[in-house]
Amino acid sequence: MRAHRACLAIIVAILVLGAGSAAAKHRPNNEVVMGGAISQTGQYAEPAGRQVNSIKLWVDEVNARGGLLGHKVVARLLDDKSDTQTAIKLYEKLITEDKVDLLLAPYSSGITEAVANVNERYKMPFVAYGAASSPIWEKNRKYIFNIVAVAEDYQKGAVHLAKQIGVKTIAIIGQDSLFPRQAGKGAKEWAKKLGINVVLEENYPPKQTDFTALLQKIKAAGAEGLISNSYFADAAAQLRQMRELNVNFKLYSSTVGPGLPNFPEQLGNTAEYVLGFSQWEPLPQILKHPGMKEYIEAYEKRFNEKPNYHAGGAYGSLLVTEAAIKKAGSFDNEKLREALATLDITTTFGRYKVDAKGMNSHEGLTFQILRGQRKVVWPDKFAETKAELPMPEWSKR
Amino acid sequence: MGPVTAADIALDIRDLRKAFGGVRAVDGCTLAFPRGKISGLIGPNGSGKTTTFNLLTGVAMPDSGQIFYKGEDLAGMKPYQVFRRGITRTFQVTRVFREMTVLENMLCVTALNVSERVARARAYELIDFVSLTRLRGEYAGRLSYGQQKLLEFARALMTDPEVILLDEPAAGVNRTLLQDLLAHIHGLQERGKTIVIVEHDMNVIMNHCARIFVMDYGVKIAEGPPAEIQKDERVIEAYFGRRRG
Amino acid sequence: MEKSDVRSLYLLAAFLVCAYSLPFLIGIQFGTVRADEQWFAYLATVVFAGILQGGVYAMFAVGLTLIFGVMRIINAAHGEMVMMGAYLTWVAFFYLGVDPLLALVFTLPIAFLLGVALQKVLLNAVVGQPELTALLVTFGLGLTMIYVAELIFTTDFRTIPYAPQTVQVTRTIAVGQNKLISFVMAVSISAAVYLFLKFSRLGKAIRATALNAEVAMVCGINVQRIYLVTTGIAVALAVAGGALVSIQFGFNPETGVVYTLQAFAIVILGGRGHYVGALIGGLMLAVLENLVSLMIPNGTAAVELAAYGLMIFVLLIRPGGLMGVKEA
Ligand SMILES: Nc1ncnc2c1ncn2[C@@H]1O[C@H](COP(=O)(O)OP(=O)(O)O)[C@@H](O)[C@H]1O
Ligand SMILES: [Mg+2]
User: Fold this and answer.
1) Which tens digit of pLDDT belongs to each residue from C267-309?
2) Which of A311, B70, C99, C295 has its CA at 20 to 30 Å from residue A95's CA atom?
3) Which CATH superfamily is domain A23-149+288-352 in?
4) How many contiguous H segments (helices) and E segments (strands) does chain A have?
5) Residues of B with Cβ-Cβ distance to C202 under 8 angstroms
């Protein structure tokens, strides 16, 4: 219904105003429209869906607080079907046809990288809660702002933990796509800094299901720890096959898979002792960010689950955007851009303050799956418990 | 033309029509094949003989007309339905499974409601009969053209059919085999089967058929015993006056 | 056998020797191949795992080749049918508590009936149409199945933690229990289908229809019924494949595409409509993938390249595939 109303509002606005710039104050019902294309179907639908949850929650909350600069916020969310070309077209459409007032970010680094060219051209800024790939900010773009920790730091904690338990050799593997490759690059640099020897680096095709040969190769190379830049299916397959083949490592860390709520559930005790990365966890007593408790409660009440880091990042980004608009005192793109570039604020997600490139230095968390629960084990200041490493051998479980 | 009564007719074809685009291959053809006899169906190339067989056996759908067999109209039935009513055929251009052995080709006739053992026994018997015994295990694709015709003929007999339609059985079959084949056709006829032969070899037609039907331009132009047909002017004109390729 | 045929066989043999020794040569060059006992154990494990995997691949291919052989329909939704089988098994396991293999007892008849219905409602309309028409229709079917699965199950990955233990085949070769079970199941099911096609009367009628539907018709075979049975069996095979996938790998509504492509590659490699070819093609593909992955530096990223390279070269040498006979 809401989407229909928004649609109608846009059509009416276009009819009344013709092709002129649709500033918020001209819209009927005193509305501002925030538009974005987020994957609601396709491979990214799951993490992106949790971001959509946070967007809906924030929209209702901000309207209850009196809206943005007194305007009622209406979200216009389109589905890019997890497809880059679709996303590009939809953003073109949102900007030129629908003439939305503000942009919401898409999900995934690859899609964000492509969409960044579109919003840059139309000079409409947004906070990229769905992208953790640093090259996006290495192209002198002025209208895209980073909030989450970048891929290069996803394995930072795991490599540090490897060092702590005396691992001397690691293998770094990952899916052959932008984000995992960046994560791998970062892991390698951290290993170098800490004096750990990387004995094997290998990428595999995105749809790879059988890792038997790769695991044997890793063993043959003499790796003690395995750093895997992987999503759900590949991480799950690697772990299962490690168990089936009785291949043991002192440490196994995956970038994305273990962070998904159903990972321990689907894998049972094969997921135990696995390390994963989280941008954020719903742990107000440990992270102590302002407003966390209220956000988590509201989210849980509405969606019957605790928010994960995807949800948390999107929510934090919207709070940042809200603060920036207040600071700018206008919906004007240039004023908003200026505000986003200079703002220094701590939200439910943590601190936001970007450097000259537009990058935030968000600190991520490394967790371990212990007895079916994700427990933060690194960095020490946020650790809920001590990491249980090295992983026990399969035959001893 | 001798009179033919209804009880003596195996296949009663009335005003059958079939056009392919603008070509009226069968154009209001009425034929009555006598029961328990060997009939010949002749005519110049392209006169519609093969198409008639196709319409009779469900391989092609008639545009209009009826085909009465045992009081039932076969027009528009599926090939397997016609087949199961006891009407089988061979093709002008042989249709055998080239990638199957001679024996497998025979056993592909799965419609018969007999045990595997009986089916095998019959297949062996028929293969012997058409003198393909030595080639039983050979792939049908490797047989000579004449041998394929014999195989097809043997296969058409697997179900012990009532009516057998043979489209140019003599073409490509050597003299000795042909004599055997004809002897067997007579044997079938003596057992009360109805046989229709399309053939260009006039010796075969004139010496072995009880009754001859002549088609031209998709219609029957003459009908009668061989001696009469040989003298029929329309037939001579159709064949020699304006022969078509 | 014709002379050119013999020549192509020699050429093929020579090519295969090269293709399979290439990973070793590259491995020696880069020092990933070692001559110690431990390394041979890795190699043996990888080859053995490839064979197991190949058996499962082959089963996917059999279902695909069956429909293609009989109806000349390229079933682009085959992988989605595999995915459907995986979900059926998953539901039986998580909601009804049924053992994934036992679940086949009722998922297979359901799959067969679904196949029959599919043939009646959709595929009968495209039999005899140009191959592209059927391809588009089944492609559309596949997409529909993906969307329906997403609606019901979401895009979350699922997997069944079934038989995760290690089986020590020899002192040096270890393999997952589920992999071994899957292989045995895949090979038995494929063999059962093969024997059914070879010896039963209905099976013969199916083969006859595949070889030449026109001839089958005049042999008294009810070709329409054969089409129904064929699609029924093919869907049942896909669903059985799905059960085997579900106990080994993670899957979501979109994973079917991979299995379609794999099955295609094997069918083309082995020779269209050829069942033994599918088995050999499946084994060859899986073993080569594993060798490339084991020995070539960053070779895992190149397994697809190796797989399609193998396929293309085999086709260049023998256009009908490994077992294909030249059309007369
Ligand atoms: N399937 C077909 N499509 C188009 N034309 C056909 C087809 N079958 C037969 N014809 C045409 O119908 C006519 C009769 O052919 P046919 O029955 O084969 O003659 P016959 O067997 O007496 O030589 C010919 O002109 C032939 O070209
Ligand atoms: Mg003819």
Assistant:
1) 888 887 788 888 899 999 999 999 999 999 988 888 888 888 9
2) A311
3) Response regulator (3.40.50.2300)
4) 13, 14
5) 110
